[in-house]
């Protein structure tokens, strides 16, 4: 019997990576494509981080480290969690892994039994449901539509809870919507999770990319109970423009972290040693490059938001964080005669030469995601093309 395992049957490739790859291919063929699909900052990693990584290699720090991460990196993370949030963790409550994505994968493997449910708000980051399914779990979606500001309420969460619920995934600021939950909203959500006695997985990877007067509150800070039931996920990919270095981490319950570390010891071993030294410098060194990038993203958002909102049939909420815009384009899709948003996005790429991610991959099929981690003049040109494309068919 040479069949693939059953668990691969529902596995779909990441929609984000697929469109980005197609746009790159078109570019290679000499086609003038503007890619707004990217899920990463368009800056290089700050120089001092690259230098620290290089120096560590020259010093011979090129060997295995403990599977759960270097003690010095765990210390840097512990200091960051304490400085940013007033949260105290022991090294045994921190795991460093190969990007937040793989840390989440490992987490689901150690907390889910077959049939366990995980509540995931819509719109969601594409990998959550796939990773839950790969661990034998069942994703349960709760709809945060454009009308509710792409957020869910505590009441909705309560309705979704069953005796099989094991965890709730909170991603604030959100990919793809850029929305941030307020402290009051988080308190209500926490209360539901406390009553149901479930884990909270708080993916805070966009925490440093916040604009206007929005504030990021980590749900783990709200009470002792909140800290005990929350596994905070974070990393250096988005904050320090370090997506390729692959360093992410989890902070939380010691038994969960121990199980994750044991699993890592048999699956990945340590995250790349050089990248860990780079991450130590990212956290212990100067943070001004992070703030410069944030300010620049904020400026781009202010510049492009009105232009995008002005396209006929586009309904756009102004995001508060991350680097994505998620217009609801249902009306534009209808008026331009496309069957659905996927077809609309395909035509945008093929005819207008603009790559956007259709929201079907995020559970929000009426939307498209545009990343403004793109040079401003390019983004403006992309908006002009989209507008022309829509108006020509209206
Ligand atoms: N979580 C969210 C919401 C993301 O958007 C991403 C990256 O796109 C990740 C986690 C994973 O980040 P990384 O694996 O690069 O640390």
Helix count? 14
What percent of residues are in strands?
A: 5-15%
Q: How would you describe the shape?
A: globular
- Main sheet attributes: strand count, strand direction, barrel closure: 7 strands, mixed
Sequence stretches where pLDDT stays below 50 over 5 or more residues: none
State the CATH class of the largest domain.
Alpha Beta
Computed Rg: 21 Å
Helix content: 40-55%
General description of the model:
The structure is a single chain. The termini are far apart. 44% of the residues lie in helices and 13% in strands. The chain has a seven-stranded mixed beta sheet, with helices on both faces. The chain folds into two domains: 6-44 and 289-389, Alpha-Beta Complex (Aspartate Aminotransferase, domain 1); 63-284, Type I PLP-dependent aspartate aminotransferase-like (Major domain) (Aspartate Aminotransferase, domain 2). The protein is an alpha/beta fold. The chain is built from 14 helices and twelve strands. The protein has helices spanning 15-28, 47-58, 71-85, 99-111, 127-134, 154-160, 183-196, 224-229, 254-267, 273-284, 288-309, 330-335, 341-352, 376-393, and strands at residues 34-35, 94-97, 117-122, 138-143, 165-171, 199-203, 230-235, 248-251, 324-325, 354-355, 357-358, 368-371. The model has no long low-confidence stretch (mean pLDDT 96).
Set down the secondary structure blueprint.
Layout: H1 15-28, E1 34-35, H2 47-58, H3 71-85, E2 94-97, H4 99-111, E3 117-122, H5 127-134, E4 138-143, H6 154-160, E5 165-171, H7 183-196, E6 199-203, H8 224-229, E7 230-235, E8 248-251, H9 254-267, H10 273-284, H11 288-309, E9 324-325, H12 330-335, H13 341-352, E10 354-355, E11 357-358, E12 368-371, H14 376-393
Parallel strand pairs: 1-10, 3-4, 3-5, 5-6, 6-7
Antiparallel strand pairs: 2-8, 7-8, 9-12, 11-12
The protein binds pyridoxal-5'-phosphate.
